[in-house]
Specification:
alpha+beta; single chain; globular
């Protein structure tokens, strides 16, 4: 008998946390630099986590991405969507639960996406004049 149950949010969060752990280990194995993890759960429909890292060169960015995609497949997490691999300046890897941005240093500094996601929460309520 096959039973299909809706996935609980806890199981989804556990899956995202497991994927994040695998991703962070893979990035460290690849010697990715300045690894920043941002919890975007509840703030974005894009996923639960965003990870931003730097590679020393276009070649290093490509090697980090290739290693990460292989690790994800080897662990049974499927094939992520990958964009930007042609240039090696900024590669986005979307696993569904976790979005990984791999930048060359100058490109990361220029876009500074961590700052955008680290903006303080604005409290809703009456505006004071």
């Amino acid at each position: 008998m096959v039973s299909i149950l809706p996935q609980s949010s806890e199981r989804g969060a556990d899956a995202a946390a497991r994927a994040l752990e695998l991703i962070l280990n893979s990035l460290e194995d690849s010697k990715a630099e300045d690894i920043v993890t941002i919890n975007i759960a509840g703030n974005s429909a894009l996923g639960d986590y965003m990870v931003v890292v730097t590679g020393r060169s276009s070649r290093h960015v490509m090697a980090i991405c290739d290693h990460l995609v292989t690790d994800l497949k080897d662990e049974g997490l499927g094939s992520p969507r990958v964009e930007g691999q042609e240039s090696g300046d900024w590669v986005l890897i979307d696993t569904g639960d976790v979005i990984v941005h791999v930048f060359r240093p100058e490109i990361r500094e220029f876009y500074n996406i961590e700052k955008m996601w680290a903006a303080p929460e604005i409290e809703e309520g009456p505006l004071l004049h």
